[in-house]
Amino acid sequence: MSQARTLTFSIFRYDPQEPGDKPKMVTYSLTEAPGMTVFIALNQLRETQDPSLQFDFVCRAGICGSCAMVINGFPTLACRTLTANYPDGHIKLMPLPGFDLIGDLSVNTGKFMRELSERLSLWLHPNSADNDIHRIEAPMSPEEATKLYELERCVECGVCVSACATKQMRDTFVGAVGMMKIARFELDSRDTRTADDFYHVIGNQDGVFGCMTLLGCQDTCPKDLPHMQQIAYLRRKMASV
Ligand code: SF4
Ligand code: FES
């Protein structure tokens, strides 16, 4: 039987709430187990070596988007990343850039997503007649439902924000997640906003015309969402206003 490997984790540590604390990398060793993910490894490190280690998780199944971090330079979900992917057994973990740091590997993506939602009005704007709860629901075509479902798969993990060089250079850029969500409402026949309304929100350098097509979002999105296709769709819509 082959002997289990020893993994080496180099982890960013910094607690902004702790007066005098300074950012540093701390090294930990751990015996690899079959099927181990980076998320499982972090739990074991916290349970057996350092209870102060901060990182986020909820679902452990790639659904909640909480465990996103930079793993060996690549932003992705810790619960969907096998330690076996790293043949030399060295794994470096950093928090996602572009978000407020809570501590160590934990960042405040929730605050970012809420501010984005308020800035872009990311909720359905239906006809006032649709607010009548006694009205019979109107069916949606399966084709439209499929298109909306595709974009609803976003788990708001923040990976595309961290992977976008434009966003890192220009903080006011709405990023792929913002444009994907606008595309979702633009496609929804129940939403009364027109292309002209959306143009006033994202028809500028902070929106569709600021994207430099560097593809960081599409290359890293753990849900394989079609960012480039949707941004091109919105650009065509905005250009026709
Ligand atoms: S679009 Fe993809 S990478 Fe961006 S927040 Fe949604 S799931 Fe995460
Ligand atoms: S813990 Fe929910 S996506 Fe990883």
Automatic annotation (TrEMBL):
It catalyses: a menaquinone + succinate = a menaquinol + fumarate. It comes from the Bacteria. One of its GO terms (biological process) is respiratory electron transport chain. Gene3D superfamilies: 3.10.20.30, Alpha-helical ferredoxin (1.10.1060.10). Residues 21-97 form the 2Fe-2S ferredoxin-type domain. GO terms for molecular function: 2 iron, 2 sulfur cluster binding; 3 iron, 4 sulfur cluster binding; 4 iron, 4 sulfur cluster binding; electron transfer activity; metal ion binding; succinate dehydrogenase (quinone) activity. Part of an enzyme complex containing three subunits: a flavoprotein (frdA), an iron-sulfur protein (frdB), and diheme cytochrome b (frdC). It comes from Shewanella frigidimarina (strain NCIMB 400). This is Fumarate reductase iron-sulfur subunit. It is an enzyme of class 1 (oxidoreductase). Keywords: 2Fe-2S, 3Fe-4S, 4Fe-4S, Iron, Iron-sulfur, Metal-binding, Oxidoreductase, Ubiquinone. Its EC number is 1.3.5.1. Residues 144-174 form the 4Fe-4S ferredoxin-type domain. Its cofactor is [3Fe-4S] cluster; [2Fe-2S] cluster; [4Fe-4S] cluster. Binds 1 [3Fe-4S] cluster. Belongs to the succinate dehydrogenase/fumarate reductase iron-sulfur protein family.
